[in-house]
Q: What sequence folds into this?
């Protein structure tokens, strides 16, 4: 049971130097699985552009338009530029979260490195777009709002945004993965302890097990992907305005 | 009782206390959000769909503090408790 929280890590020394190259092979592999899944999905959709639109295309258009409306609500006509980014983040996080429901597979998002990478991506894009829109001097001045004593609070607030953004996703998916790994053994051990091991395989218990998987994988995964994408949009919009 | 046993005992007990106490605040917050959502959608039943979406997002944000408690508890269990 102790291996529920561990993630496979490998490292090798770069020859000739003292540097170490650390990588997580499982996380990398499943990240590429998600990337190829999104690629195949997008190619399939792009091929079905015709009139009247197919059902798959109409569904995807509905998703895209919903995000476009939210983006235009929060930053006006500029929102059109950031919608592809937000929809891509949403699809990546959604499919990553759903991958963990299949027994034996692992979500890339249950590794903190993936979540922190996505958070850093949003962080850098938000600050770069704020500099591009307002100019460097005005961007630096926004840290002195409402007056100069607030400089440390503003800086800590920006770092806190990054940390809470990525740790929220990681915590939810990691907790779901731990619960996936623990429910099966706990059910079997409980029925062993009360002396009725044959009841552990009953349909009712199996249904409860599957329901917990569906709740923590599909429902929490969808809500967290939506929250992650919407917060990315909000962070970009706040920095561009203030 | 040896020193490492004592450390494991304290780690397990404190992770349980951490999770239990940490969940209190976000549970109150999620309850308040749900109560206000029911109030809002019963006053204005047409807005039930948009309100449900906003409610789910607000609940996910309110549960962030419980997530921090969970992370600390898991660190205590898997990093200190296993040693």
A:
């Amino acid at each position: 049971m102790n291996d529920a929280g561990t993630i496979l890590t490998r490292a090798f020394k770069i020859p000739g130097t003292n540097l170490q190259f650390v990588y997580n092979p499982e996380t990398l592999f499943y990240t590429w699985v998600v990337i190829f899944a999104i690629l195949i999905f997008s190619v399939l959709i792009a091929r079905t552009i015709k009139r009247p639109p197919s059902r798959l295309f109409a569904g995807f258009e509905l998703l895209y338009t919903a995000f476009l409306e939210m983006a235009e609500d929060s930053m006006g006509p500029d929102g059109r530029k950031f919608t592809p980014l937000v929809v891509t983040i949403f699809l990546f996080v959604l499919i990553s979260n759903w991958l963990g429901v299949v027994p034996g597979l692992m979500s890339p998002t249950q590794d903190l490195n993936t979540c922190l990478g996505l958070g850093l991506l949003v962080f850098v894009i938000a600050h770069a777009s704020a500099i591009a829109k307002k100019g460097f001097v005005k961007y630096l001045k926004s840290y002195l709002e409402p007056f100069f004593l607030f400089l440390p609070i503003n800086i800590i607030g920006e770092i806190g945004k990054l940390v809470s953004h990525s740790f929220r996703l990681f915590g939810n998916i990691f907790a779901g993965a731990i619960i996936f790994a623990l429910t099966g053994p706990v059910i079997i051990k409980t029925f062993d302890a009360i002396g009725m091991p044959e009841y552990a395989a009953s349909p009712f218990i199996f249904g409860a097990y599957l329901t917990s998987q569906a709740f923590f994988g599909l429902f929490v995964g969808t809500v967290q992907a939506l929250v992650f994408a919407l917060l990315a949009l909000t962070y970009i919009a706040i920095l561009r305005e203030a | 009782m040896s020193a490492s046993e004592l450390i494991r005992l304290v780690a397990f007990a404190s992770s349980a206390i951490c999770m239990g106490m940490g969940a209190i605040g976000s549970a109150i917050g999620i309850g308040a959000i749900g109560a206000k959502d029911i109030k809002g959608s019963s006053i204005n039943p047409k807005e039930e769909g948009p309100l449900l979406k906003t409610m789910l997002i607000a609940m996910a944000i309110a549960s962030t503090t419980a997530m921090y408690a969970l992370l600390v508890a898991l660190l205590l269990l898997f990093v200190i408790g296993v040693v």
Observations:
- Chain A has a mean pLDDT of 85.
- Residues 68 and 83 of chain A are 6 Å apart (CA to CA).
